[in-house]
Recover the amino acids of this structure.
């Protein structure tokens, strides 16, 4: 029974709700906030830049009650040219407060590209002067030209509000055409900092006692000839349900391949110097094209491994329709491992914090919907919600939902029983400069359990993120509505399919903190 009083208190967005005394499980109306007739306006609960351009998240770290989201930003243009580190902080990963840029271009060293940030509580760097909340950013300084990328440090002793460049910058150089995006963590067993950084076709590993002096230890890249530039590496230990530790190595490839995504991961062992893969040498996929440059937060106090990614792809990022800004970060996700017939695999699940934005009353609640063609489930649902459903496809066909459905546009999410794949089809918005490839149907193989696939879909005006099979299969896409898209329908092809336990809960707007 929904607690509607609670909804009214927490979410002013509901204007009417079933009385707690009446056994009605559907909220009757939702407010103008959710059904406002604009298209292409800002998402409700995804981070977007205050203006102009945003790409990679960088320097993600929790410190003293705040999550820090630094990000690649160009404050002047809706494309990337004059890059720096934008900055926002949040107590809960949802309500963000914009702060002044953290790192700006340096005339001698170049633009601050992507990197990471660590808490150097022991002052190993000698930059922290006894400040236990000392943040050290380790990042790439780059000019546009090749062979000009090198790694630098900047330190903050005021909770990330201001940074000073290390006078010894750059601290790491190499004769390489691509050499960027250092990801740094403390490796307790060897009492050293470990860095993994990208170059053409390869990830390079270094260690350091003090963040200043770096020693190369190994490289990872099994098919360097065929590989594009490796960007935005991450290297993290994950604990499996059986207590074993498996290191996650994530690499982004630029240019990527739209259908197979631009990011790959491997699970393996890491001894502080060398990564030894346990999974396929070519890497595994974990999302579609619009989850790039993902980075994990350092220093998360409750031990969760959390990351988020930039919801675009370099092949079209600068051609997307804009309304004064470009770029959106995904919902933050918790990482885990699940056992499959092929061994351990990465899982991604939206962070629990998102539930605090969710309406208690479902907007839609259906135990069973039999579907053999397109059926409208709701005409004016709004465009910021979470939909949960178990899809049961016909034997030789497909079943799914069309979210953000307008008169001519929709984003289809379904299961194709012939191909054994979860798929997302977002179409190509009319009258834009987006390439035809944008409209490709994206798919990922995933097995049904007892003939069904449990799916959770986060919809937020300009994005659709689909999590299936407990986070084993994930597809995230940005969408660019050119019409009002507040409808929801179900569809089946090639026979009769069934939607089980369908619910839709509205998500409240996570206002920016002033
Ligand atoms: C990845 C990337 C990084 C680089 C940054 C520049 O999207 O190309 O390799 O540091 O963007 O903004």
């Amino acid at each position: 029974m929904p607690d509607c009083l609670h909804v009214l208190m927490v979410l002013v967005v509901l204007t009417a709700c079933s009385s707690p005394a009446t056994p009605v499980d559907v909220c009757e109306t939702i407010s103008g906030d959710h059904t406002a007739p604009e298209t292409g306006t800002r998402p409700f609960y995804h981070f977007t830049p205050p203006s102009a351009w945003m790409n990679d998240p960088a320097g993600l770290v929790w410190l003293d009650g705040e999550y820090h989201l630094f990000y690649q930003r160009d404050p002047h243009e809706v494309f990337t040219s004059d890059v720096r580190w934008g900055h926002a902080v949040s107590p809960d990963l949802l309500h963000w407060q914009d702060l002044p840029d953290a790192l700006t271009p340096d005339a001698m060293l170049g633009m601050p590209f992507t990197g990471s940030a660590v808490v150097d509580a022991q002052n190993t760097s000698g930059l922290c002067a006894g400040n236990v909340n000392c943040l050290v950013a380790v990042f790439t300084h780059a000019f546009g030209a090749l062979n000009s990328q090198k790694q630098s440090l900047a330190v903050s002793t005021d909770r990330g509000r201001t940074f000073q460049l290390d006078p010894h910058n750059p601290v790491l150089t190499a004769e390489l055409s691509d050499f960027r995006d250092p990801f740094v963590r403390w490796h307790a067993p060897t009492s050293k900092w470990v860095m993994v950084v990208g170059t053409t076709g390869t990830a390079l590993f270094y260690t350091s006692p003090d963040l200043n002096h770096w020693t190369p230890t190994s490289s990872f890249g099994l098919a360097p000839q065929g590989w594009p530039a490796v960007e935005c590496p991450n290297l993290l230990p994950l604990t499996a349900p059986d207590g074993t530790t498996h290191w996650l190595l994530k690499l982004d490839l630029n240019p990527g391949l739209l259908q197979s995504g631009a990011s790959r991961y491997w699970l393996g062992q890491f001894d502080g110097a060398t990564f030894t893969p346990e999974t396929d040498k070519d890497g595994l996929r974990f999302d579609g094209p619009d989850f790039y440059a993902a980075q994990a937060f350092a220093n998360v106090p409750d031990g969760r491994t959390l990351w988020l990614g930039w919801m675009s792809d370099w092949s079209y990022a600068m051609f997307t329709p804009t309304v004064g800004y470009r770029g959106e970060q995904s919902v933050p996700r918790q990482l885990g491992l699940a056992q499959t017939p092929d061994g351990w695999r990465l899982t991604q699940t939206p962070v629990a914090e998102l539930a605090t934005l969710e309406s208690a009353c479902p907007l839609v609640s259906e135990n069973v919907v039999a579907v053999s063609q397109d059926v409208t489930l709701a005409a004016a649902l709004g465009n910021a919600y979470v939909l949960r459903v178990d899809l049961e496809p016909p034997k030789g066909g497909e079943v799914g939902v069309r979210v953000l459905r307008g008169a001519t546009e929709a984003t289809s999410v379904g299961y194709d029983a012939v191909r054994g794949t979860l798929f997302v089809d977002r179409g190509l918005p009319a009258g834009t400069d987006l390439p035809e490839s944008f409209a490709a149907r994206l798919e990922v193989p995933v097995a049904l359990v007892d003939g069904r696939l449990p799916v959770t879909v986060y919809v937020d005006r300009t994005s659709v993120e689909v999590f299936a099979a407990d986070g084993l299969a994930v597809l995230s896409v940005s969408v660019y509505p050119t019409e009002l898209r507040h409808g929801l329908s179900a569809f089946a092809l090639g026979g009769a399919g069934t939607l089980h336990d369908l619910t839709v809960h509205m998500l409240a707007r996570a206002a920016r903190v002033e």
